[in-house]
Amino acid sequence: MKITESTVSADPIVVIMGPTASGKSALALELARKRGGEIVSVDSMQLYRGLEIGTAQPTAEEQMEIPHHLVGCFDFHERIDVFMFQRLADAAIAEIRRRGRLPVLAGGTGLYLRALLYGLDDLPADPGLRQELDAAYDSEAGETALKRRMAELDPAGLARWENCRRRLIRALEVRLLTGKSILELQKNPFDRLRYPVRAWRLDPEPEVLRERIARRARRMLETGWIEEAERAIASGLLETPTAHQALGYRLIAEHLAGRFGFEELHARISTATWQLARRQRTWFRHQHPEAEPLRSGASVPETA
Fold first, then answer.
1. How far is 42 from 40, CA to CA, in rounded Å?
2. Domains and CATH numbers, the chain
3. How many CB atoms lie within 10 A of CB 39?
């Protein structure tokens, strides 16, 4: 992947990355308090209003204490892509710097973070083809048909993005346009950082992370997530592209329809979240060599 822009600024920023439930938000808050920082969320789902509990957005109290950016900015009927996110995040970082404060990036959406730090790829794009594939995905048996096509054309891409609609469609688009796998075309993503950074990657032991995920899922379900999901579903969430990415809401819809009880709901959400976390751990280990690993309970060094 070629970098599309030169380095944006010589002033460093701090990045806290890692899988869901690894403690990124707490560590970012700790660092922002110590260093006079403001937090920029790098989470594709925290952008949306009305999904505060299910996407683990910072509380109102936390946002009053430390300014947060790119949290609850959009209605979930709006589609925000990586290109728009990059523009919004660049603007937020510039605004924070103008106030003489430290930008602290925290999040687990790997594609968004890579686009912000390294730039967007210059691979060919065909919006018409992408729209056609998107519509095909929504048709009856369309998801199965597209995945079967990917299995024939780009099995490695399917293995990587089988559970991510947006990335799967983009990979198929690139394969159809170039005749090559997007993975092959992105073999050298680390040409140059757009920002000088100090980056840390939270990497809890798997058993610790799995326990955290289960504990957090239960707490969220017991403190309003089901009611939040019910309101969002009544407002049309399940008919939006956001629903495909917002983990847990479709499962809650099935629970509300009486298909399974609370304990089964908790187990299914915990399992789905663990699967996401495993993919995120792999992504961050391979896609962000600039990040220093931190284990559970660690703090960012004072020299950050």
1. 6
2. 1-119+192-304 (3.40.50.300), 127-185 (1.10.20.140)
3. 30
Parallel, antiparallel or unpaired: strands 197-202 and 37-41: unpaired
Judged by DSSP in three states, 249 sits in: helix
What is the rounded CA–CA span in Å between residue 273 and residue 210?
9
Would you say the pTM of this structure is higher than 0.70? yes
Dump strand ranges (E) for 74-223: 102-107, 197-202
Encode burial over 87-123: b for 16+ CB neighbours within 10 A, e otherwise: ebbbebbeebeeeeebbbbbbbbbbbbbbbbbbbbeb
Q: Is the pLDDT of residue 119 over 70?
A: yes
- Cross-sheet strand order for the sheet of 197-202: 68-69, 37-41, 102-107, 13-17, 197-202, 291-294
The answer to whether the CB of 299 falls within 8 A of the CB of 26 is no
Under a CB-based contact definition with an 8 Å cutoff, are residues 30 and 299 in contact? yes
According to the model, what pLDDT value does residue 1 have? 26
